[in-house]
Amino acid sequence: SKGKTEVDDEFLEELENILVAADVGVETTLDIVDAITERSKGKTYRSEEELNEMVMEEIRKLLVESSHDHPVDFDAPLSAKPYVIMIVGVNGAGKTTSVAKLAHNYDKAGKKVVIAAADTFRAAAYEQLKIWADRAGVPIIGQGQGADPASVVFDSVSSAVSKGTDVVLVDTAGRLHNKSHLMEELAKIMRVAKKKIPEAPHEVLLVLDGTTGQNAVQQAREFTKFVNVTGLVVTKLDGTSKGGIVLSISRELNLPVKYIGVGEKIDDLQLFDRSSFVEALLE
Amino acid sequence: NLSDKLELTFKKLAGQATINEVNIGIAMRDIKRALLSADVNYKVAKKLVEDIREKSLGESVIKSVSPAQMIVKIVNDELTEIMGGENQPLNLPPKKIPAIVMVAGLQGSGKTTFCAKLAKRLKKNGKNPILVAADVYRPAAIEQLRTLGEQIDVPVFSVEEPDAMKAALGGLEAAKSGAKDVVIVDTAGRLQIDEVMMAEAEALKNRLSPDELLFVVDSMMGQEAVNTAKAFNDRLDFDGVVLTKLDGDARGGAALSIRQVVEKPIKFMSVGEKVDDLDVFYPDRMAQRILG
Ligand SMILES: Nc1nc2c(ncn2[C@@H]2O[C@H](COP(=O)(O)OP(=O)(O)OP(=O)(O)O)[C@@H](O)[C@H]2O)c(=O)[nH]1
Ligand SMILES: Nc1nc2c(ncn2[C@@H]2O[C@H](COP(=O)(O)OP(=O)(O)OP(=O)(O)O)[C@@H](O)[C@H]2O)c(=O)[nH]1
Ligand SMILES: [Mg+2]
Ligand SMILES: [Mg+2]
Fold first, then answer.
1. Chain B residues whose beta carbon lies within 8 Å of the beta carbon of residue A23
2. Cβ-based contacts of B147 with chain A (< 8 Å)
3. Strands (DSSP E) along A55-151, which ranges?
4. Are B102 and B238 in contact (CB under 8 A)?
5. What pLDDT digit, counting tens, does each position of B240-281 carry?
6. Contact A215 B249 (CB under 8 A)
7. Is residue A241 within 8 Å of B224, Cβ to Cβ?
């Protein structure tokens, strides 16, 4: 990637190292390298930029775009009212903070938001989310530690229906995907939400810690099995990790990355941009 | 898994007269890919495979009736050795009252929960610990530690002001006047590239002079585990590592990379969300897990 205008062994080896170092994973890296080898057979490129653009395009191809029924922009019209978004993921990934960021963005866009504090398990989970809800200036519905998370969701969705709320953001407890009883609980929360609104949740966002390695692919597989994951949020990309795991996840499970977390403050959320992501990946 | 892969590779090679430089290359490539898939850092994996390759070309392997088995054993032994021989316990000087433990690490790695787990374990071993809430930034971080402290009947010290140093030093004073023999200081999650926060961690360390400064790291971390651990170690020279969320199914290659690069002992494994879910570290079990 430094001053080269043709794809030779040295170029491919360097690319391989960059991709592996970015958590792209062995299989996907080899597939990308094969695709580039194939595409560039017998070609010389007029400039380093042209060659790099070809590489970036090959990688960008792997990233699925968000569908129109799950708009990324916060001011876009929503397909239902209330529009229920459930946030799931493993422990410490950044769900609660991401819920706060989403609430803030929807609120800024003029939408009426309510937060459902459905993490009723972890110490001070409600207190943490309450502080965020107050900062975002949106109401929160919760029942504290030990309550039934499904009943929090039911109450929140019911309240949203009666109050004409636009968006319900459901924060859930962190859970490891290999714990079937916890995954079953998540499926149950979804079923209970459907009792009130059959199409709910309209979105299920899986929050992935951007520093996670290949286990993220397994997380995406398992969460998708139990709840219908519709998109990804990748957090902590303000750190040095590149989040390359989304390439494997995107191609295997057809899941788009909707947002990325780039800090601990309420406005540290960005809309996912495939081009800037791939550029940063190759830096 | 790796063992099966190598068996297959050598079945294909079985027809050949000898194990040699050329055909061992395939086995080494399989090993490298297995390590990378387990999140071992690619530079660490490269070096490790070179060592394994050298040993694999030794007399006993070449003459062996089952080279695949021998090579798997070599890989296993290499990994176990890197993971650190035997378990290294917490080093709290018995005459020092109070002994001081401080934790540090990236956001969400499991520090706060670990502090409570450690407090419970020490209390069970006859110690009289106090928890100090020096994460003055995260919403309800103090509340979280308080709630955990109440669960295990261990006092939690905190201050009103968002001043981590004030909390840490205040906690130390509270320990002395309250006849506590161990102080466990929880700190905020931070990025290794956040100069302000790394300076805070360094300042806390310098003022507290902890007997044990532990780097808490999520076992599912990817390639950046090395750079992160190295930065924390260069800055804070920590005494040991705590690996968390090992109740998950991440292979945990980050642990190998960290051991290889900073050469500090892994002292504990966090294996669950409950306050009892803390294990002492077993190097050979970790090696097995990484191999898959
Ligand atoms: N640097 C950085 N830190 C983040 C980001 N998102 C979240 N965090 C931090 O990560 C830590 C964990 O965030 P939480 O929102 O509590 O994560 P969670 O998934 O809700 O955690 P559990 O509910 O315990 O499973 C906190 O210290 C957050 O401030 C991000 O984009 N960048
Ligand atoms: N399954 C599992 N969950 C864990 C383990 N250790 C911690 N957790 C969970 O991981 C999440 C984050 O733990 P915390 O203790 O809040 O992490 P932290 O490092 O203090 O986070 P920050 O202060 O925001 O940097 C919580 O949901 C914990 O319950 C573990 O070993 N296994
Ligand atoms: Mg949370
Ligand atoms: Mg904490």
1. 222-224
2. 123-124, 145
3. 83-88, 113-118, 140-142
4. no
5. 999 999 999 999 999 999 999 999 999 999 999 999 999 989
6. yes
7. yes
